[in-house]
Write the structure tokens for this entry.
Amino acid sequence: MKYMNKFTDTIAIATVVGREGNSPDHQLRPLNDRSVIKEVKAEQLADKVVVVYFLLLPLSHNSAFDERWDITVLENVYNYLYLPPDKGFEVVFVAVDDNDTSYNNEKSLHPYTETNLENHFQDVFSCMPWPAIPFYDITSREYLQRTFGFMDCLSNFSAIVIDSTGMVLQKQAHWCFNYFGTLGYPFSHERENFLESECKAIAMQPSLSKLLSSPERDYLITNNEEKVPIHTLEDKVTAGDQGTLGQTNVAPK
């Protein structure tokens, strides 16, 4: 089968998600406010930039933190891009069952063999604001794995970006979400090349507003959660301090 994972490949995402063989009203089921289940028809994905987010379940002890961090980063991107009418953007979660017959079980690292996978799916899915292929729809989940060649992926997660015309733009877009955030939209290689050249230009002629701001934010915060407009720092000598979460580098008094 020809995998739809090359940058020249095109695919009708609504057709693949709500493909022939399922009922005409084949639907995705996102958790809306973490308690209310809402249904979204697959046809609503047409003409949007869609991220097909594959995640191997169950999560391993070693990878759980990294994967939840990636989900948080993607959630920030999603929350900013989902609502504007001029930004047709959606994410679809596809759980990859470690017990699926179409998947090579040897690729799983430290699986929770005793885990109830459906409950685990609900636990992971509850952290996501976007739709998902229902866990019980094994046929569709395996079909998507084969279509996008996830079985050949060396990672236990994958974010595939498909533009509004159906062209596959990215096979592993996690680094783009982490590095560029919402600025990377629509997450094409052309956009990445532009942003990389802009980063080099900013490094040559630094600007506080460009270095410290983002499309969502034009301020910094104090440890009292007060907002400090970035433009107020323009005429000051400013020092930046990068820290790593989870590590303590403060010398004792």
